[in-house]
Amino acid sequence: MNIHLKRIYDPPSPADGHRVLVDRLWPRGITRARAAIDLWLQEIAPSAELRQWFAHDPARWGDFQAKYRRELEERPEAVATLRDLVRRGPLTLLFAARDEERNNAVVIKRFLEDLHRRHETEFSRTLRHSPPRHSRPSHLRG
Length: 142
Hints:
Elements: E1 3-7, E2 18-21, H1 32-35, E3 39-40, H2 48-54, H3 61-73, H4 76-88, E4 91-95, H5 104-129
């Protein structure tokens, strides 16, 4: 998976691929033209209650991650939108937070990577337990 994280205030780059803003509120002091986003996916952002509770307090980071992951599980359409975009090429999740290590985009990226790993594991497990496939139908095999 080719997922990048970037502050919305940083200049866009051709390597960004699809640029998706994952905040509920539009970032202060930036125009839509300067943001150069492909999609503003507000519905993937944390609920207002969770965002206000977290208030970017590093002491609440662990609990925020767990609570936000539960919210992401309840938003399959928004998650599917991001999974579809990352299948097409690089995806850059854009956020406005000053803290680049503790924000909703970090949680989204890890959530998507975990989903991807889980699906790969399930797929390989299915292949291991599938009966062998033959090129000829069973009634023609001798």
